[in-house]
């Protein structure tokens, strides 16, 4: 009886390990701007983690968070990506944009490079500038 129980537990554990999900990594931070103005209540925030290695090709998005903004700046974000998609020698950056009803209000104007190979990623501070 003990052998049957042990065999069934071994089979169950093997099945569970086969169902493990792909490993996930996270990148956290805040989006802010310097102007002393409040955001409209219907504004939306989009933050993206992209592979920007190739200058003559579109950036490849690894993770994206978008949705209606709750509150005012600084605006927190949490990106989850698959570390298997990170390629050695490639350059990765985070960009952000704030829109209202499809109209761009704020956008990143500088590259925010992030080292995804680092053992510890500190929270990012992403500045966006007002679009005039």
Automatic annotation (TrEMBL):
Keywords: Lipoprotein, Signal. InterPro entries: Lipoprotein_YbaY-like (IPR053196), Pilotin (IPR039366). The keyword Membrane does not apply. PROSITE patterns: PROKAR_LIPOPROTEIN (PS51257). Residues 1-20 form the signal peptide. This is Lipoprotein. It comes from Pseudomonas taetrolens.
């Amino acid at each position: 009886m003990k052998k049957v129980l042990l065999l069934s537990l071994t089979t169950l554990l093997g099945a569970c390990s086969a169902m493990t999900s792909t490993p996930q990594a996270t990148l956290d931070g805040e989006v802010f701007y310097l102007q002393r103005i409040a955001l409209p209540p219907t504004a939306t925030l989009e933050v993206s983690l992209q592979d920007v290695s190739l200058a003559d090709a579109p950036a490849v998005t690894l993770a994206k968070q978008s949705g209606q903004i709750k509150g005012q700046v600084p605006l927190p974000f949490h990106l989850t990506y698959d570390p298997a998609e990170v390629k050695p020698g490639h350059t990765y950056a985070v960009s952000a944009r704030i829109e209202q009803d499809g109209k761009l209000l704020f956008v990143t104007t500088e590259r925010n490079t992030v080292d995804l190979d680092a053992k510890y990623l500190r929270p990012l501070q992403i500045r966006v500038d007002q679009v005039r």
